[in-house]
Amino acid sequence: MKNMKLSVAIILTLNIIALILCQAIQTVSYDENAVFLCAKHMDSFDYIDRTEDEVLVASKVIAGYLRGLNGDEHLSLIGLNDKEISHMRDVRGIYKTINTIKIVAAIITLIIIMLYAWKKINVFKFKELRNTLFIGYLVPIFFGVLYLTDFQGAFIKFHEIFFKNDLWQLDTKTDLLIRLMPEEFFVSGFIKFLAYYTISIFVIHICSFYYVARCSSKMKKKGV
């Protein structure tokens, strides 16, 4: 029974991690102003060959496309060519998968917590969850090492793994998308993603420590 409860705590932890990871990716990627703010920070409107207003519109259209609110025709209107639109179609497919993973993780997490709340079925101990949540810190450590050692290499390897074509290999001379979203844009987004995830898992972990301490205090008062 003890091993089963530990296994449930591990499963719950992994689903919480997956849920936060997916939400972190979506939160950063769905920011309608991200592309525009990056361009403004770098003062790269001349390099992009678009006005501030045009980049702002493009920023909102791209974010809306990833969320499934805009179609291919909207990407065409902001100046993306067929190759870029095809690549964005592949990217949106990945985001659909991420959303599915998030929903599944949320459902599993909710079921386990509901079973825990129903005292008749004690599926895990919160003390075990508090301990297994330390696993969550492996994510920022892993990605942090990638960032500090070879971000560009990791970025290229990511595309080679998740894309079955070479449409992601864009040319700054002919493709607007790579000018709108240069390496600095992805570095900034990566840092925001790591910050969002790390803060979220830390807050949840602190809450678990507080809950365990509170329960222990109540048990001592009852003389258990």
Summarize model confidence as the mean pLDDT. Answer: 90
Helix content: over 70%
- What percent strand? under 5%
Radius of gyration: 22 Å
Global morphology: elongated
How many DSSP helices? 10
Order of helices and strands: HHHHHHHHHH
How many extended strands? 0
Q: Tell me about the biggest sheet?
A: none
Low-confidence stretches: none
Cα separation of the termini: 21 Å
Supply the helix-strand structural class: mainly alpha
Report on the structure:
This protein has 224 residues and is mainly α. The protein has helices at residues 2-29, 34-42, 45-48, 52-66, 72-77, 82-117, 126-132, 138-162, 176-180, 183-222. The model has no long low-confidence stretch (mean pLDDT 90). Helix 1 (2-29) packs antiparallel against helix 6 (82-117). It contains ten helices and no strands.
Descriptive tags:
224 residues, 0% strand, single chain
Provide a short characterization of the protein structure.
Helices cover 78% and strands 0% of the residues.
Secondary-structure map:
Blueprint lengths: L1 H28 L4 H9 L2 H4 L3 H15 L5 H6 L4 H36 L8 H7 L5 H25 L13 H5 L2 H40 L2
Helix pairs in contact: 1-6, 1-7, 1-10, 2-4, 2-10, 7-10, 8-10
